Amino acid sequence: MMRRLILLLLILPALGGCAGSQSAFMPRGAEAERIDTLFWVMTIGGGIIFVGVIAITAVAMLGGARVRRALSSEPFINGAGIAFPSVVLTVLLVYGLLILGAGARTPPAGDGLRIAVSGELWWWRVTYTDAEGNTFDTANELHLPVGEPVAVELTSADVIHSFWAPNLAGKLDMIPGRTNTLTLTATQPGVTRGQCAEYCGGAHAFMSFHVVAQPREEFDAWMRQEAGPAVPPASEAAERGAALFLSAGCGACHAVRGTEATGTIGPDLTHIGARRSIGAGMLPNDAAAMRQWIVDNQHIKPENKMPAYEIFTEAELDDLSAYLEGLK
Amino acid sequence: MAERERDSSDRSGYLRRLGEAVLVVLGVLLLGGTLFIWSGVYNIGASRDHFGIVTWLIAQLRDQSVNASAQGVDVPDLSDPGLAMLGAEHYRSGCAACHGVPGEPLNPVFTSMLPAPPDLYHAASDYEAAELFTIIHHGLKYTGMPAWPAIERADEVWPVVAFLLKVHREGPQVYDATLAEGQVDEPGTGRIAFENCVRCHGDDETDLIDDLVPRLEGQSAAYLARALTEYRDGTRPSGMMQPIAHEMSDDEIAELAEYYAGLTALAPASDLQGEDVEAGRQIFMNGVPETGVPACASCHMGANPQFPLLAGQPAAYLMGQLQLWRNGIRAETGYGAIMATVAQRLTPEQAQAVSLYLSWLPLPRDGGDGP
């Protein structure tokens, strides 16, 4: 029993790190690196002091009379009991405040890029605004240029959520009626994952997102593509799907820019086909998953705002998913 | 001391003897009852009435039970004259077969039932409205009186109650025993009550019997056919429409749907002004995005024939259906489940506003431009 417990304790940290794409121990952003450094300084420093205290306690209980007398002397108690913790805690506090930049102001984004993320039950509405004020919506995926600090404005449309991309920064609450600003600076390109970190209702655990850090040119290309209208359907099936999308009323909640679908209740689907997941990290993004989501979303993510659409024939589902998959 | 001991042993001996006697009596009763049932000596035939005492006991049981069930029932306003007329037409389809024409002798087939279906001319003097509701809604065991075919549709029972109250109040002549003859041999105008859609839904010459009934003229044929199929399958609950759809074949459904879809609806008479329905128009055209209500217009503008056209439908019908969805009653079908999600996000005020707007909206004519 004891051995099994020890084994479990040994495995636990390894489990925490096994998904490197969502781990504070694998920093890929300046803010997360600072948190990582702080964590290790605190953990190692605290560990050394802990071992020292245990050693002194053992000596005090088991050591010879001379050592014990020394430990109970007034200079030792003043030094190790009062002076040492005061100095160490003060230094650590100042260090912690400095490294986390407490009170520092968010640096303005260099090119006027603004990103706003709104937490909704249970997905992320992401709004990009460029320097000219052009704005577009996407969902459940945050793209960032590598090496540039970007201020992300966090809000909520309903209840308190918390935005947490552990590889990039610490978590920050999204509070209805308030805008919190979080600075993210991706230090290397790549895709990582984030998660709502404040319980927000039944499907809270199913509210994830991807962060895609890209070199500046790639990011600009993505911005241009994403800001534009939807590509026209490329096949006959996709054309039928596009017509069905409108006639079945999907556009009441979803926008596909460049078509009559202008709904704002659910995620913008203009470039859904280019995203890495559907249902806020629930399913891979392919035609099979699209079908599954349309028909069965209430089982995949119970009580989400989209009704289950059990009204389509198999052929219609093929057409719809072909259309959506093609919205790159 | 010794006397007290003798006292207590006397008492326990008495109790033991009493216990034994009770057991013997119970045993005899059980055995006798078993023998009575097994022998088949009791005449269960309808040709002979119960013993007087049995009849009296059953009547007590029935009336006490009906009275107790009716305690929690809130009687709605039943004064709308159309309500009693709608109830009369359901009486014609569903009740008249056994209960006959109020105030007139019953067909001997039914007088030979035990108990015989009572003449309902006087039903309202024997029972309060809430008690009549309970009897029609839940039926009566061992009498042949069925429960309402869609038990969740308590709302459909009230028109029948209203009719029974009216018959009692104004006399049996309020019930026209003759079935309106079909104008021509058109679908929906048959001579049998179940075939005669026009009695309640009207057509291009006759108006709706009541505001609780939807207008069918000019409706999409695909939607009408789907509605009838769902009634027939029992996935759209209605004690009025399920028995009617049960009688219909696929071909009859298709023919009827085409017939009504091809008619031009009468213009609804509405004294509302444009500004009265502005709030409802906003909801219909734009939804209420803050609370997740999508625009009704994105489905109900005729682009998809599976979604019904709503312009010109009576507000009471629309509100009633929205209320069903809000209560989760029409959510069994794929389409119903979608609408249930939306209806549950509407406040009662929003449901009323959008219903009033639609009732005011002129109908699209001959593929006209709609709202």
Task: Please explain how this structure is put together.
The complex is a heterodimer of chains A (328) and B (371). Chain A has 328 residues and is of the alpha+beta class. Chain A has three domains: 18-100; 114-227, Immunoglobulin-like (Sandwich); 236-325, Immunoglobulin-like (Sandwich). Chain A is 41% helix and 19% strand. Chain A has eight helices and twelve strands. Chain A has helices at residues 2-18, 30-62, 65-71, 74-100, 216-227, 236-247, 287-300, 314-325, and strands spanning 114-120, 123-129, 135-139, 141-145, 150-156, 161-164, 172-174, 180-184, 190-196, 208-214, 277-278, 283-284. In chain A, helix 6 (236-247) packs across helix 8 (314-325). The termini of chain A are far apart. Chain B is an all-alpha fold. Chain B folds into three domains: 58-174, Cytochrome Bc1 Complex, Chain D, domain 2, CATH 1.10.760; 193-261, Cytochrome Bc1 Complex, Chain D, domain 2 (Orthogonal Bundle), CATH 1.10.760.10; 276-360, Cytochrome Bc1 Complex, Chain D, domain 2. The radius of gyration of chain B is 28 Å and the shape is elongated. The model of chain B is unreliable at 366-371 (pLDDT under 50). Chains A and B meet through loops of A and helix 14 of B.
Chart the SSEs and their pairings.
The complex is a heterodimer of chains A (328) and B (371).
Chain A: H1 2-18, H2 30-62, H3 65-71, H4 74-100, E1 114-120, E2 123-129, E3 135-139, E4 141-145, E5 150-156, E6 161-164, E7 172-174, E8 180-184, E9 190-196, E10 208-214, H5 216-227, H6 236-247, E11 277-278, E12 283-284, H7 287-300, H8 314-325
Parallel strand pairs in A: 1-5, 4-10
Antiparallel strand pairs in A: 1-2, 2-3, 5-8, 6-7, 6-9, 9-10, 11-12
Helix pairs in contact in A: 2-4, 6-8, 7-8
Chain B: H1 2-39, H2 52-69, H3 81-99, H4 108-111, H5 123-126, H6 129-138, H7 157-170, H8 198-201, H9 221-233, H10 241-246, H11 250-261, H12 278-286, H13 315-326, H14 334-343, H15 348-360
